[in-house]
Amino acid sequence: MLTHQSFVKKAEEVLRNMSSGEKAYLCYTDFAEFKLVNRYYGVPQGDALLKAALDYLELLPRVAVWERVFSDRFLFVVVTEEKQSDGELVEQYTRHTEMFLSRYRPHYPACNLRTHCGIYPVAVPNVLEAVDYAVLAWREAKKKLVPGAVLFDHAMLETAAMFQAGEQEVNLALQEGRFLFYLQPKVDLYSGEIVGAEALARRCAPDGSIVYPDAFLSIMEGNGTVVDLDWIILRRVCAHLADRLKRGLPVVRTSVNLSRLHLRVPGTAQRLHDMAQEHGVPPELLEFELTETIMLNEFAEAKRFCQQLRGYGYTMSIDDYGAGYAGVNILQELDFDVLKLDRRFLSSEEPLYTRNRAILPDILNSLRKLGIDAICEGVETQEQCRYLAEVGCRYVQGYYFSRPVPPQVFYDLYRETGGCFSSPIGKPESSAGSEWAWSSPDPLVSEKRI
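User: That's the sequence. What structure does it adopt?
Assistant: Structure tokens below.
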């Protein structure tokens, strides 16, 4: 295999020898979820696919130099006529890639072979700099749910600079232990009872101000430190619950969010259980939330993960249902306890409003039959509370009851209210023709606590 230095030398030579009527593109590409090829078919078959990709690149007349630089990642330079547009180059890449993938998909039927590619129209003599730009475009391609090619744009440089500055702030906060959690109550619409809470990450700035997740979460998901964040939050939640239990104070079941990156680490479910046990927190007081988007790419891992944690006695919930494109297979194949409905189900904008009114009752009816609790997030008005009660969604979470607040403030509120808000809907009259679907809830569902 060529070395990286060899690729740079050959690429520089190609750029020097181009005629005045030619231009070059540097491409950086990889296979989406290539690890699944090795997992399902073995490393030799994975290596065979990578060799086939190199052989295919060698056959393409416009590819001047190529190299496999790491695992399933490839660099190559395409030389075209000056008159060819960037869009036409992307179309050619897409066509050739699909020709290759369609040839090999039958050999790997358990994997959906696809690629991500970053393309840089070479405008600098420095090949290493050109590679950096192609990698920036590739990272943008990786963010897309639909794999494909992305052309470099100079705005990506500004985005990268902002990302690096944010990354430095995040790393410093991790080193200094400046991450903490707030709690937001989960409420039973029927009784107003606080039946649980979600632990939401916050960062404390050096000046003591609170930094919200939109300023750091995407950065941590991008560089993998979100895994460290999840462990920090879980440890703090466990310590807080353990302290209250030790002092004989009331507690509610608390949910903790988990990144999909945990699914890639063997033994994570056992480690989560060990941490709770170390603090003396019983499983019924902890709930783990996985986002719906996990199911698009790592369904098998999520299924196994949920089964393991439920086996230990923890509650499992699927978060942000309706925000992505996961389908009915979540209900068909995944074992979990709670489905968290995204705030999109409360949208007042058309056509979402009309469609939600048609879809939501059927979703809730299916969940009741399966013994799965539903909770709707983003509830902000009494009207929304009444609507959710009418269609059969008993549990809610949102600003109508409380913003996320520090744990001490949460439990001060819990004490002051006796663990129960005033019901925003009032108890419906009991009658055979009642339109209130939750007035006689399934016993299996009513005994659970979110």
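The radius of gyration is 26 Å.
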